[in-house]
Fold this sequence. Notes:
Blueprint: E1 7-8, H1 25-43, E2 53-65, E3 68-80, E4 86-91, H2 100-103, E5 108-110, E6 123-125, H3 126-133, H4 143-154, E7 158-163, H5 166-181, E8 186-191, E9 197-198, H6 199-208, E10 214-219, E11 234-235, E12 239-243, E13 245-247, H7 255-259, H8 261-271, E14 281-284, E15 292-295, H9 306-323
Parallel strand pairs: 4-7, 7-8, 8-10, 10-12
Antiparallel strand pairs: 1-14, 2-3, 3-4, 5-6, 9-11, 13-15, 14-15
Amino acid sequence: xxxxxxxxxxxxxxxxxxxxxxxxxxxxxxxxxxxxxxxxxxxxxxxxxxxxxxxxxxxxxxxxxxxxxxxxxxxxxxxxxxxxxxxxxxxxxxxxxxxxxxxxxxxxxxxxxxxxxxxxxxxxxxxxxxxxxxxxxxxxxxxxxxxxxxxxxxxxxxxxxxxxxxxxxxxxxxxxxxxxxxxxxxxxxxxxxxxxxxxxxxxxxxxxxxxxxxxxxxxxxxxxxxxxxxxxxxxxxxxxxxxxxxxxxxxxxxxxxxxxxxxxxxxxxxxxxxxxxxxxxxxxxxxxxxxxxxxxxxxxxxxxxxxxxxxxxxxxxxxxxxxx
Length: 324
């Protein structure tokens, strides 16, 4: 996961560091590698385990499409070679990173933990929850049942939970479930996650998981972390770590490039060794090798709700179409 054709560039003196938490370089990049491996495992191509870890197990999930669906590979378990009690549970996103725009239903539903109770009742995306809790076809166990069986089998002393995009959302469902059902030493560090649930979800999550134990790493220019639009009243959870990168000298936003896990990992590989952990430079786009990505110091201030802006643009286009 080393940077491809990365070129250093000195940040301007006016750049102001954002209030990011300090990330552990080795652990963060290991979790990014594990998240990428979960994608590769699903796609049936060779995958790389994080340095110092061995892949020991996997799980599946149910993907429902209209009136049918299929059981699919959804995650990998890695065990530390030097500290056998340390485990990584890595969830994958959809086979196309941006499918979350189309195939996830954000209508909220109640989150019910595997064991115990939580108040207020978390309200989460019915699309995410159906993948986590659903069973179909010849599946013997839901994703939830499988990952808890793996916890019972391996009894980790330290659990690291991760994922990218949809996988990041699923990882947060799992982390809250673990925190309620069988509390243990756990850290969730996820990448480019959409929001998972409403105010009640955020309140319940914060009551069980400390902000330092749940970290969201994302690109300021990525639209996915702003999903769903504000009309759904969803809230992000945990502590955010903001990067900023985009396709250089292009008028089109190139959403896949902004959302790419590999592009994000390239930025992190360069940023995390620095103080502050921010990097300005250019590198080759993983999604389209003909394009150049530019990483900058992240803007300060609040995140932009890109999904609301897209909705506003669509509404404007509808008025133009009606007038035409």
